[in-house]
Amino acid sequence: MMQPCNYRQAVRRVTKLRHPNLVTLIGVSPDTLALIYEYPPNGSLEDQLGARDTSNHLSWQTRICICADTCAALMFLHSCHGMVHGDLKPGNILLDSNFTAKIANFGLHSAPSHFPSTGELSFASDVYSFGYVLLRLLTGRSALNLDEVMQNALDGENLSGVLDPTAGHWPFEQATELAHLALSCRDIDSDNRPDLASQVWPVLERMRTEASLSSRSGPEEPSQPPEHFLCPISNEIMRDPHVAADGFTYEALEIRRWLSDGHDTSPMTNNPLSTLDLFPNQALRSMIQEWRQRHNL
């Protein structure tokens, strides 16, 4: 379990992060030392890959975009903030209304660090996990031996036999290149894994450009603000969101007015607040500002 001091550091760190491919912190749970993130409408990549009984499957074009989005988020964490995700998997990749990928459960590790049960936790370990995400997107399978399955398919020139048919007709050259890229990320020797910025990103950026030429346009962004943009007290779009000790995010003016009126309890739960300190949620503030600009508000 995370220690309280580390938890406070994580809250301060995550509220300052803003990237289009990272979910935004909207609250905290001090009692359980948990971080509460937005939950985009299309759920997790794991949910989408497991929905075999629906007709709304992820196309190969969308899957390539998800690969690129995830790579961009990892590069941001690694290069700009020295953070290791440490638990990258389809369940921690969420999809918004346009199926843009957003990584969740980040900000808990700094590199280099050590994870006793699996060895060293590093940028290279994130690359290894990213390779697994690529294999899942290619095959749609959740088997533990996907590395072996893919390598055997490439050696036997039977790649089409392991590609997920619900994604549509993968361009063979792109699928082959993506398969080799995934396996290189999964190299047992961490020194042989590719560098995200110089070796992986250029490939995925080119693939995404090519995929966009044949992909259909996605759904329009909803005109109504997401619920977590609204202050729980005033029910209006926040301009200066702050996280209180109860874990909820409020408009700074509203929560300060509540506290200045002599309240030492949560406006939402009526339970006593462990502290009257407030943390500015800079990431959510930036997200709201961008939404306002897009809607001319």
Automatic annotation (TrEMBL):
Task: Indicate yes or no for the key word Transferase.
Answer: yes
Q: Which biological process terms from the Gene Ontology are attached to this UniProt entry?
A: protein ubiquitination
Q: Which residue spans traverse the membrane?
A: none
Q: Which SMART domains match?
A: S_TKc, Ubox
Keywords of this entry: Transferase, Ubl conjugation pathway
Under catalytic activity, the entry for this protein gives:
S-ubiquitinyl-[E2 ubiquitin-conjugating enzyme]-L-cysteine + [acceptor protein]-L-lysine = [E2 ubiquitin-conjugating enzyme]-L-cysteine + N(6)-ubiquitinyl-[acceptor protein]-L-lysine
Instruction: Report the protein's function.
Output: Functions as an E3 ubiquitin ligase.
Q: In which pathway does it act?
A: Protein modification; protein ubiquitination
Domain U-box: from-to ranges:
224-297
Native organism is: Eucalyptus grandis (Flooded gum)
Q: What is this protein called?
A: RING-type E3 ubiquitin transferase
Q: Could you tell me which residues belong to the region Disordered?
A: 211-231
The record's top EC class is transferase
User: Which SUPFAM superfamilies would you find in this protein's record?
Assistant: Protein kinase-like (PK-like) (SSF56112), RING/U-box (SSF57850)
User: Which residues lie in coiled coils?
Assistant: none
